[in-house]
């Protein structure tokens, strides 16, 4: 990737002949000038907070008394690992990710396959399936709170009309998380569908033609061609939606506030609670660092598995 | 049937076309199950939209009374006054203006700052560029949620709590957008830049008059991604903004919902109002929208 750029620079320099040195200096200066705004902003608002997050996690920093902060070693981490609330949050977050990621990915692939046919109104359906992505999570959560309302909500009315028992949904500690999962899949599936559609369209048609000549049936072609060809796309979708799932917050904040009985409290919700509500910055930072390491691990695993054939 | 790849259908229809005259009818017939599935799915994806629009136009009491029937999706009795009421209940116009300002400012500054950096990385050759770019790329994995606390402390130390700066400045520079811009610039024809250099044009002039005018697709992509992210952001404004005057639309709605759980008609009018800008942008620039999502997917 860098090779043609070098060649280009060299040629421009060679053309300039004797003023080579000053041109080189000019290009250095101009280049740094152009990346300066982005570098300064990223340094101040991304690099510095990242470094500080690590540092804070080893202190007893509190927002209300910042000057009293002391270095306390790994005490925050030790407390965290012994905190049953934290482990509940980890379990809840993992539960959400383990269910939502495969379901959403499979649903997205299903929708993409349906729309990858030459049928009239194709773009209409694509628009419809994608449309919830445009809604903010706050709006979605507000709407679905209404559908899930146990006494007057739409879903219970539908259940009753069908002669089925009413459910407690968000007010039940066993149903609240599944209710949030269903809603989250509904909101996000269109995003993955569009990525899958792009992936499907990149599969060379001759592969299918050759397989058809060899007498492969539709299922064999799906398993033998479509799935392997979509490997890169699938890995990307799985990693991105896993990371998104681990960040679960807004739905919980709007719909359940972590309840009932902490059954929907997630890592990020607890981070927010501890860090800003309870003002326990050091403790919260330790959680943030663990969260960062988790995301890092997932990203590295992805690097290992995704074939680096392009780019 | 549902998961049949496209050419199975085509091969099937082609065979039939050879043998029978009413081929078109049979083809439609063959696709009927697919259509049925698509229509049912469409209902699943559309009902919250329909419900939102219908409920926003009827009295709050009717919203609750209608849940059990199809009337839930029809605005009778018609009550457009919900829209007046929601603006009377909370200063929604103020919230919308705040959101609009913050989103636009971040977007405009972001497109400039990120494209300029990407231009330097893609087109120019300066000492340290490789290391700096590698550093930038490595920052892609830092999740915002893991750094929001120290970021909050920084913003607090700058005296920016309850200010627009807090919602704009930290989000201007974005590693993903720099990466996307760079990829696009690398694909531009090289002769353009080279010949302009030989003609004595400065690098900034080339950026302004040659590169950027050719970059409409990537600018739209980044602009759309940024608009979606900023307009719908909830977490960060929730943390940095406590002053009612500076609330974004999303914050305003969350608190309207928290306080007025029973006033469903009014809450729904609020949700329609804050969703409308994005819906309009989406319907107008649909092609770009879908493309931008696909781009982020393919480039990673």
TrEMBL record, chain B:
GO terms for biological process: transmembrane transport. InterPro entries: MetI-like (IPR000515), MetI-like_sf (IPR035906). The chain crosses the membrane at residues 34-54, 100-124, 131-152, 164-185, 206-229, 264-285. Pfam families: BPD_transp_1. GO terms for cellular component: plasma membrane. It comes from the Bacteria. It is found in: Cell membrane. Residues 96-285 form the ABC transmembrane type-1 domain. Keywords: Cell membrane, Membrane, Transmembrane, Transmembrane helix, Transport. This is sn-glycerol-3-phosphate transport system permease protein UgpE. Belongs to the binding-protein-dependent transport system permease family. It is a multi-pass membrane protein.
């Amino acid at each position: 990737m860098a090779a043609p750029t070098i060649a280009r620079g060299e040629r421009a320099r060679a053309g300039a002949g004797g003023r080579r040195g000053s041109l080189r200096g000019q290009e250095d200066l101009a280049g740094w000038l152009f990346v300066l705004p982005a570098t300064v902003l990223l340094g101040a608002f991304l690099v510095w907070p990242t470094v500080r997050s690590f540092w804070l996690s080893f202190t007893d920093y509190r927002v209300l008394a910042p000057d009293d902060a002391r270095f306390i070693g790994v005490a925050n981490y030790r407390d965290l690992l012994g905190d049953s609330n934290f482990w509940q949050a980890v379990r809840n977050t993992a539960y959400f990710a383990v269910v939502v990621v495969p379901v959403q990915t499979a649903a997205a692939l299903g929708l993409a396959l349906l729309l990858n046919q030459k049928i009239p109104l194709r773009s209409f359906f694509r628009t419809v399936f994608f449309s919830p992505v445009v809604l903010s999570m706050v709006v979605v959560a507000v709407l679905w709170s209404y559908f899930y309302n146990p006494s007057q909500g739409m879903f219970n009315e539908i259940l009753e009309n069908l002669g089925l028992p009413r459910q407690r949904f968000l007010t039940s500690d066993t149903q609240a998380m599944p209710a949030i999962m269903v809603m989250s899949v509904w909101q996000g599936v269109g995003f993955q569908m569009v990525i899958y559609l792009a992936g499907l369209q990149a599969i060379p048609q001759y592969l299918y033609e050759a397989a058809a000549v060899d007498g492969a049936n539709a299922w064999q072609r799906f398993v033998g061609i479509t799935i392997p060809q979509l490997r890169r796309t699938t890995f990307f979708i799985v990693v991105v939606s896993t990371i998104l799932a681990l960040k679960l917050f807004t739905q919980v904040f709007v719909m359940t506030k972590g309840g009932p009985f902490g059954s929907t409290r997630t890592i990020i919700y607890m981070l927010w609670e501890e860090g800003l509500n309870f003002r326990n910055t050091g403790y919260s930072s330790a959680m943030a660092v663990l969260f960062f390491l988790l995301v890092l691990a997932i990203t590295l695993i992805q690097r290992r598995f995704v074939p680096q054939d392009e780019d | 049937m549902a998961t049949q790849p496209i050419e199975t259908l085509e091969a099937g229809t082609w065979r039939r076309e050879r043998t029978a005259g009413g081929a078109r009818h049979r083809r439609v017939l063959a696709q009927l199950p697919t259509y049925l599935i698509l229509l049912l799915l469409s209902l699943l994806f559309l009902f919250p939209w329909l419900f939102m629009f219908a409920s926003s136009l009827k009295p709050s009491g009717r919203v609750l009374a209608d849940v059990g029937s199809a009337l839930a999706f029809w605005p009778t009795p018609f009550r457009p006054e919900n829209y007046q009421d929601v603006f009377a209940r909370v200063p929604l116009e103020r919230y919308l203006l705040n959101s609009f300002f913050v989103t636009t400012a971040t977007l405009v500054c972001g497109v400039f700052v990120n494209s300029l950096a990407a231009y330097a990385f893609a087109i120019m050759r300066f000492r340290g560029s490789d290391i700096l770019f590698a550093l930038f790329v490595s920052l892609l994995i830092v999740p915002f949620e893991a750094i929001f606390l120290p970021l909050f402390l920084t913003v607090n130390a700058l005296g920016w709590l309850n200010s627009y700066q807090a919602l704009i400045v930290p989000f201007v520079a974005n590693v993903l957008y720099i990466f996307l811009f760079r990829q696009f610039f690398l694909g531009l024809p090289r002769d353009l830049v080279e010949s302009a250099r030989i003609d004595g044009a400065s690098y900034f002039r080339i950026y302004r008059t040659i590169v950027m005018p050719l970059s409409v697709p990537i600018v739209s992509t980044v602009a759309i991604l940024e608009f979606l992210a900023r307009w719908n952001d909830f977490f960060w404004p929730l943390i940095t903004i406590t002053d009612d005057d500076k609330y974004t639309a999303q914050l305003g709605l969350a608190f309207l919902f928290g306080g007025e759980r029973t006033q469903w008609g009014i809450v729904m009018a609020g949700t329609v109002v804050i969703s409308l800008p994005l819906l309009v942008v989406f319907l107008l620039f649909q092609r770009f929208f879908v493309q931008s999502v696909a781009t982020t997917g393919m480039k990673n």
